[in-house]
Amino acid sequence: MASKRPIGYKCRIASVLLLLLASIAALVAVAVIQDKWKFTQYSIQYGIVIDSGSSRSNMYLYEWPGEKQNETGVVTEVLNCRVSGTPISEMKVDPQQDAKSWIGFQACIDNVTKAIPAEKHKNTPLFLGATAGMRLLHEKDENRSNEILESLKEYLSSLPFNFQNASIISGQEEGLYGWVTANYLMGNLLEKNLWNRYIHPEGAKTVGSMDLGGASTQIAFEIQDELQGPDYKHVKLYGYPYNVYTHSFLCYGKNEAEKIILDKIIQGAYDPTNIANPCYPEGFNITITASSIYDTECTKKPEGYSPDQKFFMVGTADSEMCRSIVKSIFDFKTCSSSHCSFNGVEQPPVTGDFKAYAGFFYTARALLMNGTSDLDQFNASVSKLCHTPWTELRKEKYWISEKYLKTYCYGGHYVFSLLADGYKFDKETWKNIYFEEKIKKTSIGWSLGYMLSMSNMVPSEVKEIPPLTDPVFAGLIFLFSALTIITVVLVFIIFIRTCY
User: Fold this and answer.
1) In a domain, 150, yes or no
2) Taking residues 332-340, what's their average pLDDT?
């Protein structure tokens, strides 16, 4: 029995020492895990962009997770609210109309406020971007333009959001951000892989974008060459660089171009009380005031101009004559570069697919040519619409307001001339144009692209979450600390007994 005693003590000592080491290891492990294995939780962030165009304002609410992909937020549209009342470029003229516009702004703000959690209000950035309507007003009446912006800044800064700025964005910015929007929605900039992670699409090609507004039109598309000039922009999105050509033509929006064409028709008439308009359908007539044509920087006031003068126009439905007048507002000859669009503006040859939205889409839809089409088919549809009598046209296009329906003969010729003669789309490349209003149920426009760009500037809200809750962490630390102390005591007792 005596010979077995040392062996028994050795086993006990080994067991206790092993328990001591395990306790110490567990204690260290819990402390390290709690400190090093923290994961970050990003809260949802919001942003508001107000798009104030030449015909109306739209208020967009966007959201994105705080965890950004290569410094750019993954943004989605939450709400799109159309502001009732007049466009902001017509403010500071009629106080009653201004009051209606402010009511329209407040109604949309109320909708946005409800959609954003209250605790997020003060950190939600708010931007207003005014486009071609205000660009024209700024040229015509800088003081009124500044007064309108100051009133908007005062109003927007009083809201519970983080108001950033209200400004007039350039035509190039409008075109570039429209390009970003189209490609973002197409998934050409970012996509989810099988592991639900956002990655850059392998071999994805970008699409060009074409925007037709009321006062300006924009074209933008990616180019492979490193060309230099005011219309060549170098941007970085989701960690990848892009070279983009973008140009904006002020006064070549659908509404302003129509005024230029009406002026040409008036200048070629002998009797202002009976003017033949080849772009209006047969059976249609209208009285137009001079101010509605000449109260803009896009048309030159005639000699002896009177804003109250009346012009009586009668539709003659002459498609070829209308086309000729439409083409006359472009200069296709002047060009000091190897390639130009019109009015001497340099433009590389168009390549790849294009998304044509806003006024392009509405015109194509009126011609039943939305989506993709053939160049000759599109042209034939324009001629057919122009030669359709007004009474029959109203029955066929009952879903289009008469206010707009009367413009689509001119509008069809204008879109065709702009794309075919201006941007140089031919029979082959025309097939690459997609006339669309939305992509994946989201409107195509500059505001989403603007929000994507601005999300680089918005700091992410990050909360670090440890793997163990405080009570669990404290309990484990107490347990393994107590276990360590007990084993130390046991080791001490065993050593004492071996001495006697």
Assistant:
1) yes
2) 94
In this prediction, residue 89 carries a pLDDT of: 94
Residue 217 within any structural domain of the chain? yes
Residue ranges making up the domain that contains 22: 2-37+469-498
> In this structure, are 188 and 140 located in the same domain?
yes
**82 and 15 assigned to the same domain:** no
Q: What is residue 141's three-state secondary structure? A: coil
* Residue 369: strand, helix, or coil: coil
pLDDT per position as a tens digit, 402-440? 999 999 999 999 999 999 999 999 999 999 999 999 988
| Cβ burial 401-435 (10 Å sphere, 16+ → b, else e) | eeeebbbbbbbbbbbbbbbbebbbbeeebbeebbb
CATH number at residue 181: 3.30.420.40
The answer to whether the CB of 121 falls within 8 A of the CB of 161 is yes
- pLDDT tens for each residue of 484-495: 777 666 666 666
Residue 422 within a domain: no
214 is in an annotated binding site: yes
Same domain, 11 and 142: no
The pair phi, psi for residue 191, each rounded to 5°, is -150, 160
Give catalytic residues, as residue numbers: 174
Inform me whether the pLDDT recorded for 1 exceeds 50.
no
- Structure-token pair, residue 81: 């609210």
For residues 23 and 138, membership in a common domain is answered with no
Query: Do 13 and 51 belong together in one domain?
Result: no
Question: Are residues 82 and 19 located together in one domain of the fold?
Answer: no
Annotated ligand binding at 217? The verdict is: yes
- Do 25 and 74 sit in the same domain of this protein? no
Share of the chain above pLDDT 90, in %: 65
Q: Which amino acid type is present at position 62?
A: Y
Helices then strands (H, E): number in the chain?
A: 15, 20
Reading the block at residue 339, the tokens are: 């390639």
pLDDT for the residue numbered 67: 59
Report d(CA 425, CA 406) in Å as an integer: 26
Q: Is residue 480 part of a domain?
A: yes
Q: Which long-range contacts (CB under 8 A, 24 or more apart) does 67-72 make?
A: 67/40, 67/42, 67/460, 68/455, 68/456, 68/460, 69/190, 69/198, 69/238, 69/239, 70/238, 70/239, 70/240, 71/239, 71/456, 72/237, 72/238, 72/239, 72/452, 72/453, 72/455, 72/456
For the chain, the domain total comes to 2
Q: What value does the mean pLDDT of the chain take?
A: 86
- Does 229 share its domain with 173? yes
